[in-house]
Design brief:
It is found in: Cell membrane. Belongs to the binding-protein-dependent transport system permease family. InterPro entries: BP-dependent_transpt_permease, MetI-like, MetI-like_sf, OppC_N. 41% of the residues are buried. The radius of gyration is 22 Å and the shape is elongated. By secondary structure, it is mainly alpha-helical. It has a single domain, classed as MetI-like (MetI-like fold). It is built from twelve helices and no strands.
Length: 281
């Protein structure tokens, strides 16, 4: 059933021009970030003040920043970190949210009500405020930042999966599994989560986009990753500092990368959601 649904969704997705555009754009951006350094290697560790703040020209296609780092190479390095954190945070958040929502949806009654009231309370907490506090309190690296963002992002996943499980738990195949003596763990892992996979995949795509924006916001506010690790947010913050000097190559390329990445992920997620919705209908 799951493989048939996946095939149907893939065919529907191929008929979505915007979804295809988002997918192609995302592949191109990932290739630029992860394969680009193999074709265009740069030194992103040693400061070179002699070649600082050079405009785009021969040897430096996008110029250099105020520390002498090649901006094109910096974009690739920052994109790697931003995408890695986004993916790790999305996987972490979706894993927790999926299990939590599935348990709540299957249990129902008082247990479901209690678990979802906890989610409502946590959703009322300002997300970025607490992430800023934790980032300032602890040394931020890619893994810790992924865990912090994922640890506050699973709530939406839990509500989505719980709603899907509420509709699945009364289906014939779930009731038949219960009659045959399947445990709650088996019901969740074998029957409910696999059949809620479409919603989960769509949610992961949105979660990656949200995490990329959070990483950029933290870096822009000065609470992101520290030297020598680069991220798009800190690059943008550095460029805005020199906006009055007309160092446009420090602002527009990195801003464009953030916008295009989030746009590609949202286009792909919207197409997946529409395809899954048509399949459900």
């Amino acid at each position: 059933m799951t493989s048939q649904r996946t095939g149907t969704v893939a065919r529907a997705l191929r008929r979505s021009p915007l979804g295809l555009a988002g997918g192609v754009l995302l592949v191109l951006l990932a290739g630029f970030c992860f394969l680009g350094p193999l074709i265009y290697p740069t030194n992103q560790t040693d400061v070179d003040l002699v070649n600082a703040a050079l405009p785009p020209g021969p040897g430096y296609p996008l110029g250099t920043d105020t520390n002498g780092f090649d901006v094109l190479g910096r974009l690739m390095a920052g994109g790697q970190v931003s995408l890695q954190i986004g993916l790790l945070a999305a996987i972490f958040a979706t894993t927790i949210g999926t299990l939590y929502g599935a348990v709540a949806g299957l249990a129902g009654g008082v247990v479901d009500g209690f678990l979802m009231r906890l989610v409502d309370v946590m959703l009322s907490v300002p997300f970025l405020f607490f992430v800023l506090i934790l980032s300032a309190r602890f040394h931020a690296n890619a893994l810790s930042l992924s865990l912090v963002i994922g640890g506050f992002s699973w709530l939406v996943s839990a509500r989505l999966v719980r709603g899907e499980v509420l509709t699945l738990r009364v289906r014939e195949f779930v009731l038949a599994a219960k009659v045959m003596g399947a445990s709650r763990t088996r019901l969740i892992l074998t029957h409910l989560i696999p059949n809620a996979l479409g919603v989960i995949i769509v949610n992961i795509t949105f979660q990656v986009a949200d995490a990329v924006l959070v990483v950029a916001a933290l870096g822009f506010l000065g609470f992101g990753l520290t030297y020598p690790t680069a991220d798009w947010g800190s690059q943008l913050a550095s460029g805005v500092t020199y906006i009055s000097a007309d160092y446009w190559w420090l602002i527009y390329p990195v801003g464009g990368c953030i916008v295009l990445t989030v746009l590609a992920l949202n286009l792909l997620a919207d197409a997946l959601r529409d395809a899954i919705g048509r399949r459900a209908d």
